[in-house]
Amino acid sequence: MDRGALILLTMLICGDTLIPLQVGHAATIMLPDGRGFLPPPPVIKSHAQEADIQAFESTRALKNSNRWKLAHNDADLNPEHMIGDFSCAAGFKLLPSELPTLVAVLNALEKPLEQRITEEKENWRRQRPFVGTSQPVCTPDADKLASSFSYPSGHTTWGWLVASILSSAMPERSSQIMQRGRIFGESRIVCGVHWKSDVQAGYMNGSAMFAAIQGQPWFAEKMHLIRKELQNARVKATPAESATCALEHEASQEAF
Question: What predicted TM-score, i.e. pTM, was given to this entire model?
Answer without folding.
Answer: 0.91
